[in-house]
């Protein structure tokens, strides 16, 4: 007998330059136990276009109406961060499983409120590189001390955004109130992956810089004031005892995008590399090491823009397993709250010029 497929409704599945279009939709369509049941946007025309383009059975111009629909099992929220809270709380109130893009909220306080509401539900936070197969294998090598005791890690993590030029479509990212910027997105994903492999961060020092305070809006020949950092340097330690440095940079040409995460241990080294222009979380990672290792597991699904569906697909596959088994192994909103608090500590370290100490588990 064929197992009933979980019905997914995606809020924010726009056909015009949306993250859902290049990652969530192909991930859902590539997993045999999920089905794209509906899409929702704020406007009837865009909702109809998305349903036709993505093959969704239904469309909604009111996201809350989709949330209330009894046919929907999982609500995916892939919209601007200030809209997360109302949509997530409504979905939880309706008894739905929820996949919310990161960051969870625009502040620590908002993330705390949302996480408290999701205490026992099946939820997933879009820190998708957390479940990347190569990252999981690297974490296993560290846990089994295959390279001995980790001593030092060095990360270079880039994205094409937050450079000297931007587009009208992306002006949202230039505003501090949006909650979505190089710190909360690229640094959030980068340091989450570091914690997957090396354990929780226990202390951080950091410097946040805005190198291009007035980027040009290329499609309007105007300029805009950038209210957020476009370069971040972090220095810290983790529960594994390893010290680390992380260089997180915006404004890198797409063809020059790079991600390097090298760990030196007492008996060897390992490295994770990537190069997706959207940032390391958006594509696959490659593992190399000075010691032999079993190849990473095959991903649950591939596809999307330069394989942008791969890591998102791992989260959906994990969430579906949790729903079926009644377990809670997927990175959830408590994990999202931990990541939000970590990014807040990074920002405070930069403002104060003083090292910030963190509990090993803040969630």
Structure, described:
The model has no long low-confidence stretch (mean pLDDT 96). The protein has an eight-stranded mixed beta sheet. A six-stranded parallel beta sheet has the order 3-2-1-4-5-6, sandwiched between helices. The protein has a three-stranded mixed beta sheet with strand order 8-10-11, with no helix packed on it. Helix 1 links the parallel strand 1 and strand 2. It is an alpha/beta fold and 363 residues long. Helices cover 31% and strands 24% of the residues. It is built from nine helices and 17 strands. The longest helix has 20 residues. The N and C termini lie far apart (40 Å). The protein folds into two domains: 123 residues, Rossmann fold, CATH 3.40.50; 194 residues, Dihydrodipicolinate Reductase, domain 2 (2-Layer Sandwich).
């Amino acid at each position: 007998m064929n197992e009933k497929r979980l019905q997914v409704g995606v809020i924010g599945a726009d056909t015009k330059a949306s993250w859902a279009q290049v990652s969530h939709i192909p991930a859902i369509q590539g997993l045999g136990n999920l089905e794209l049941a509906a899409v929702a946007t704020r406007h009837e025309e865009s909702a109809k276009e998305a349903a036709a383009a993505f093959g969704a059975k239904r469309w909604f111009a009111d996201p809350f109406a989709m949330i209330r629909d009894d046919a929907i099992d999982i609500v995916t929220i892939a919209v601007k961060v200030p809209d997360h809270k109302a949509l997530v709380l409504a979905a939880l109130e309706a008894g739905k499983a929820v996949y919310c893009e990161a960051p969870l909220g625009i502040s620590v306080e908002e993330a705390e409120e949302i996480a408290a509401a999701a205490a026992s539900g099946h939820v997933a936070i879009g820190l998708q590189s957390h479940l990347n197969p190569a990252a999981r294998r690297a974490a296993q090598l560290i846990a089994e001390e295959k390279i001995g005791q980790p001593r030092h890690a060095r990360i270079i993590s880039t994205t094409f955004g937050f450079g000297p030029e931007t587009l009208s479509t992306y002006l949202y990212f230039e505003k501090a109130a949006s909650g979505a910027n190089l710190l909360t997105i690229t640094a959030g994903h980068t340091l989450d992956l570091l914690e997957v492999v090396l354990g929780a961060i226990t202390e951080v020092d950091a410097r946040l810089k805005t190198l291009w305070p007035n980027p040009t809006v290329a499609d309007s020949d105007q300029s805009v004031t950038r209210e957020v950092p476009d370069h971040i340097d972090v220095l810290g330690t983790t529960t594994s005892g390893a010290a680390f440095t992380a260089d997180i940079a915006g404004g890198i040409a797409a063809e020059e995008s790079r991600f390097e995460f090298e760990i030196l241990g007492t008996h060897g080294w390992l490295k994770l590399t990537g190069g997706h222009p959207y940032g390391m979380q958006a594509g696959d990672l490659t593992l190399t090491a000075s010691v032999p290792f079993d190849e990473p597991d095959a991903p649950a699904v591939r596809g999307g823009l330069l394989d942008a569906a791969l890591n998102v697909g791992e989260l959906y596959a994990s969430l579906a397993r949790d729903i079926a088994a009644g377990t809670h192994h997927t990175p959830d909103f408590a994990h999202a709250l931990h990541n939000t608090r970590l990014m807040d500590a990074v920002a405070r370290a930069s403002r104060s010029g003083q090292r910030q100490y963190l509990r090993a588990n803040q969630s």
